[in-house]
Every structure is written in C-alpha cells, then in structure tokens.
Fold this protein.
Amino acid sequence: MSETQPTAAMADERIKQRSRLREAMIRPELGGIVGTIAVFTFFMLFAFDSGMFNSQGIMNWSQVSAQFMIIAVGACLLMIAGEFDLSVGSMIGFAGMMIAIFSVTLGWPVWMSILITFAICIALGAVNGFIVIRTGLPSFIVTLAFLFILRGFTIYFPQTIERKTIIGGIKDVAEGDWLAPVFGGKLFPGLFNWFGEIGIVDTFERGTRAGQPVVDGLPMLIVWALLLVVFGHVLLTKTRFGNWIYAAGGDAEAARNSGVPVARVKILMFMFTAFCATVFATCQVMEFGSAGADRGLLKEFEAIIAVVIGGALLTGGYGSVIGAALGALIFGVVQQGLFFAGVESSLFRVFLGVILLGAVILNTYIRRIITGEK
Amino acid sequence: MNPIIEMRDIQKHFGSVIALAGVSVDVFAGECHCLLGDNGAGKSTFIKTMSGVHKPTAGEILFEGQPMNFANPRDAMDAGIATVHQHLAMIPLMSVSRNFFMGNEPVRKTLGIPFFDHEQANDVTMEEMRKMGINLRGPDQAVGTLSGGERQTVAIARAVYFGAKILILDEPTSALGVRQTANVLATIDKVRKQGIGVVFITHNVRHAMAVGDRFTVLNRGKTLGTAKRGEIKHEELQDMMAGGQEMVQLEGSLGGTV
C-alpha cells in the first residue's frame, strides 16, 4: 500500500464510474418496463387493425389490467414484507358471495352489505397474519389452508341457503344505493359524451343508444386500480411505514433489533391484501350483478405472477409497486390482445410463460447489480 | 473523571452453570476498553448483561454514577448503550440510508401527512459515512454491495449518530480480512476521539493492542485484572487468555507462531 495515497482516493478507487444511462436503466422495474414495451410493440404490429387500440379496445384491456392491478398491489406489498397470501382468489369469491347473500338473500341495504363484507374480509386477513406471526409457520401453508376454507364456505353458503351457486339480482337491489356506484359506477360521463361528439370516441350509429359514445365513462374499477397503485407506491417509497415493510421482509430479526414492529407490519399487510381482494370482488359483483362460487379462481397466482414480473423478490425485502402494476398491465394486454389478434386462446399460457421467464431472468440480473447479491 | 459505566463484581448464573463469577469492568468516555477472552470465557454473557439482555444474578451496575437496572435492551439503548452485534442489524437488500435510519426514520409533514424525509436521511448518511472515511457511491447504494468492514462501519456510524455513549462491539473484526480490519480499527479510533466509550470484544490480541487503551482478560467467568496500555505485553495477554501454562507448551510445539 503506498503511503502517499490520500484516503478519499483510496475509497474512490473501488467505485466504478457508471454512465447516466446505465444508472437510469438499473432499476427494479426494468423487467416490467421492457416487458410492457415488448408487449405493446408486438400487438401494435400484429393486431393494430383488430380494434384493440380504438376506444372500446383500450377500455377492454384496461379493465382487465385494472383487475389484475388491484390484487397485484396488495400481493406486492405483502410479498415485500416477506409473506404470501394464497387465499386471495378464494377471498374474492367469498367476498362477492357475502355481498350477494347480505343484500339479495337477507335483503340488507347494499351499502351495509358492502361495509360488513369489508369488515369480515379484513378481519380474515388479520387472522391469516396473526396465525402466521404466532405460529411462525410459512404463510404459504397458512394461507393455502384459507384458500380451501374460504372456497368451501363460498360454495356451501349459497348452496344451503339458495340451493344454487350463483346469486344474481344485485343490480336491482343496488339501484339508488349511495355506496354501490363507488365500485360499479363510471366517472366523467359528460366528458366521454363530449369525446363522442368531437370524434375521439366512437358513437353508436343505430339502435336505442344511437349518438351516445360507445365508452360512456371511466369505470370505477380503473379508478380504484390507479388509486391503489398510487397509494401503494407512496406508502412503500415515501413513508416510514414503507421502510418497515422493506425491513420486515428483508430480515425480520435485524428489523426487530432496530425497533421495527415487524408483527404489526406483517399483519397490516395481510389486512391490506384482503382489502384489495374485497375491492376486486365488490367491483366485479357490481359490474356483473351477480356473485358466483367460482369467482376469483387462481387469482392469487395471477397476482403473484404480476408482482414477480414487476421485479419483486419472492423471498421478500425487495420489489416495486409500479413494477407490479406494469406486470398486471402486461398480463391484461396479453390476455385480451391475443383475443384481438385472433390467436388461439390456449396460446395465452405459452405467451405468458415466456414473458414470465424472460422478465424474471432480467429482474434477477438487475437485482444482483443493485444489491450485490451473489 | 468518573467512568460512564461501572460493572461491579457481576455474577451471572444459568441454573447450575456459573457463567460469570464476579467480573468488574469500568469504561471511561473516550477510551477503548478491550475485553479479551477465549471462546466460552464469558465475554458474550458479560456484554449481554451490560446491554440489558441479561440481568446479573449478583453485582452492581452504575451508569454515570447512578445504580442502574436495565429491564430490557431497549432501556439500555435509551440510556445510550449501543451494541453492534456480530449478526449486524443491517439488511443487505436495502440502501445504506434506509438501513441507517431503520426504525428511526426522519419524517417531514406535507399536508399533515408524515412522509419519510429522504433528503435529510440521505444527507446525514453521506455525511456520517464520510466522517468515518467511507465514500459511498450514493446513499441509495444497497448495503449488500458493501464489504464486511464497510458494513461494520455503517453499523457503528449509525450507533454513534443516534447518541451512543457506550458502544459495544462484539467481535467486529473476527470475520474480516486484513485491510477491512484496519478500516474497522481506524473507525474505532475515530469514535473514541468523539468521547464515546468503546467496549471492544475480541480474541485477537493483535487487534486489541492496535487500538486498546485498557485491556481486561476474561477466563472461565473471572477477570484476570485490567491492564493499561504499555503496562502489558502482547505475549502476556495471549497467555492470560489461554490460561497460562498450556499455552506456553502449545506455543513451543508450534514454534512460537500463535
């Protein structure tokens, strides 16, 4: 070691110079960004004339993507906090069924049915979290149990009460309710009418709705998705609590030693995931006007896939809500896009598998650069 | 000058096992007090007693002249006793600045909502790390990209920034290479000069001799006395740690290289 070397230079010699571009590229969402560009390029080239990119087409894949986004935000924060929730899909079915039973079968006001369902589902999320924390069991197992328990009840209740597995008629009872439009309504109908007039949005040419725009407003589903993404992103990156989420998932023991209330953080994230699932269910029930016992099947995996495409680490402590939202967008665009492109629908899974693999390989590479993982 | 902390005749029994059989150590502001001992000598039990993890079976702890009874580690931390464990409270996936403020995040209110004040956190982190002689690429650099010695330094800088009066370092150099060890020892020296009492636990006499002001050797739960720098030689410390006689023989058979 030479004596003359000043300390500053000594420390600097190991810091490699990095270009601005490289700095900007190396981020957890890169996999999601590249995937989004790839997917849009692909469909622009192969399905541009299919109606995928006119107002109706855009609304179509936006709504599907928004559904994925709502559950992906919850799954993302929970995964960063170091836990999984495999009961999301069953929770969606369960929540929808609860709303239907309360409002249609029992005849309670819809707003009350929705609020009580939220309370029940968030409490179930807390139970999930509490069991995981108390027993120290992997959340994978605990929530897998709830996947079956909740799905079982979702089939059992309507069968015993109504002798069927689909309960309809929610649109009728929701008429005039003050809370139902928050999930099933549409925003800015005036604006979209105007869009129709000036020709941005197509209008119906014949029939009873002639002259009205084909897209008559921004569905609340999309509004919820955007609100949840913004909320999740701000919570994770801009608040103390966000730091605790990272810490709880990165190394629970180290976090505890530094005074982070790990148990509280994890339980709250289970509750938030349940909240997101219930938002999904409520929007769906209000849109379809019915609840079915098979609703939400496999949604937990779709949420997890979106989150992983978005750059999150399955073992926790690392990830991005924006990335998860892009993952959800990719998911929705591919699913609907293949339909527009006239591709055999079974190929959807092939396409999805390829994207998943590609994004995850890219993400792993990026993450190693950022975190110095071996 | 009075010591910041004075541990008088501390005993700690675990059932029938006597882990500490009357150990006395005091630490002054601005000194580096080395606690030496072989594996199983009771070093860990002793520092855990000092940091509030264990309650002594007998003996007295005086903190700034007042008798103290730490109920838990949080109490000791609040009083200003910080411990940097071998198992560092650092999360490799998180940035240095997020780690630095983990559990103590600064907040700034915007529209009544408390947000994590990243600007302040980043500035403080860069400044504190610069003081310790580490130039980070940026405050958002992940801890996982730092070397073991640098991670130790982040942990030490964090403890100092959050107002430690006594800094307990549990074998900070045991897993490090030569150069990284030198960096950590230099950090200890910087911390000491800020008037913080450092308790440096090690079983490496060479590392202890490099920065220590006083040396206390533990052997089988007992103190073999405290010596000041210059009053004791490297070989004597080595012998005391190992329990004398056997070590001399062992050293002879190894050609004096231990």
